[in-house]
Amino acid sequence: MRLESSRARRWSLRRRRIGRSPRWYVVSATARRNDLYAELDRERRRAAELERRVSELSRSVQDLEAFSREISHDLKAPLAGICGYAQLLTHLDVGYPRPVDYDDFVAEINRGTDRMRRLIDDVLAYSTVRGARLHLTTIDLNALIDDVVADRAVDLPRPGAAPRPAPQITWERLPAVRGDHGMLRRVLENLLGNALKYVRPGEPAQVHISSRTGPDGFVRTEVTDRGVGIPDGQHEAIFGELHRAHPDAYPGTGLGLTICRRIVQRLGGAIGADPQFRGGARIWFTLPTAGNDAAAGAGQLPVAADAAR
Predict the structure, then answer these.
(1) Engineered SS bond to 304: which of 58, 80, 243, 265, CB 3.0-4.6 Å?
(2) What is the distance, to the nearest Å, from the Cα of residue 36 to the centroid of all Cα atoms in its chain?
(3) What span, in angstroms and rounded, lies between the C-alpha atoms of 51 and 185?
(4) What order do you get walking across the sheet with 271-273 strand by strand?
(5) Phi/psi zone of residue 96: left (φ > 0), alpha (ψ -120 to 50 degrees), beta?
(6) Does residue 97 have a cis bond before it (omega within 30 degrees)?
(7) DSSP of 116-175, one letter per residue?
(8) What's residue 39's pLDDT?
(9) pLDDT band at 295 (very low <50, low <70, confident <90, very high)
């Protein structure tokens, strides 16, 4: 009887342990499932909040671009009037001989209005280039540079500026690239304009443009000049906002190369200055080759995501 009682007792305890185990497992699984649902709910709320902030930032960027366009138009209207009257003063018959410093004063007005116009244009381009829609296409660099050089050849000197010797501009046979025609034209206009501007007084500008295709599917284009060059330690700083390497000797807004960097990065490339080059300056930039569509779209970030950088 004791043996049977002992066996019965052990069997009862075993059933009790077995019976409890499933209930404990069910309780544990339910708690974990509830925790998982709660975490998923928190992630959904965070994602919704992030989407709302991105949407607000995108609207803010669009509002800023619209404001920039409006304010640039409003500023240009009175500036055009000042420039027009300054031109009239240049040809006004004030008797002979002209009053002392008359021509210098008029030339200074013309220089000021010209710089103000360029500053307005650069600020507008700086504020809108990130959000501008890209129109990617195959671009013939030879034809584009030929157009840019031809436009520079017929540019009239700024009012009050001393005449300069004719520049010497050469370029090699260049490959086709993938990019936005209007934006790339602005980059080349800016780089060529800098190469023609930063020369010693009385010397002709010497500019050479070359390109080569790398194994990575990118075309590296170099604009080399024999001008005053870039001061040591400023080869990266010149791409910063409002930075001017030669602020007293040459006019400028300090935004041109910043705009170039934004454009090139949006087109999926890179831009920089060669610190090893001596006897002038060498600015290089890379763009995808004509058939490298994947790389050409690498820089096309959403407006809000790009502005959040």
Answers:
(1) 58
(2) 43
(3) 35
(4) 168-171, 206-213, 218-225, 281-288, 271-273
(5) beta
(6) yes
(7) HHHHHHHHHHHHHTTTSPP-EEEEEHHHHHHHHHHHHHTPPPPTTPPP-PPPEEEE----
(8) 84
(9) low
Tens digits of residue pLDDT in 207-234: 999 999 988 889 999 999 999 999 888 9
Top pLDDT among 229 and 292 is at: 229
Position of tokens 């790398």? 214
Is the pTM value of this prediction over 0.70?
no
Q: Which residues of 217-241 are buried (b: 16+ CB within 10 A; e: fewer)?
A: ebbbbbbbbbbbbbeeebbeebbee
For 283, other C-beta atoms within 10 Å of its C-beta total: 26
Q: Phi and psi for 234 in degrees, rounded to 5? A: -115, 10
20: alpha, beta or left? (left if phi > 0; alpha if psi -120 to 50)? alpha
CA distance 89 to 106: 7
Of 90-99, 155-164, 229-238, the one with minimum mean pLDDT is: 155-164
**DSSP alpha helices (H): ranges in the chain?**
2-91, 102-128, 141-153, 181-197, 256-266, 293-296, 303-307
Q: What region, left, alpha or beta, does residue 101 occupy, with left being phi > 0 and alpha being psi -120 to 50 degrees?
A: left
pLDDT digits (tens, 9 = 90+) for 164-181: 788 899 998 999 999 999
- CB-based contacts of 160: which residues, under 8 Å, 6+ apart? 106, 107, 108, 110, 111
206, containing H or E segment: strand 206-213
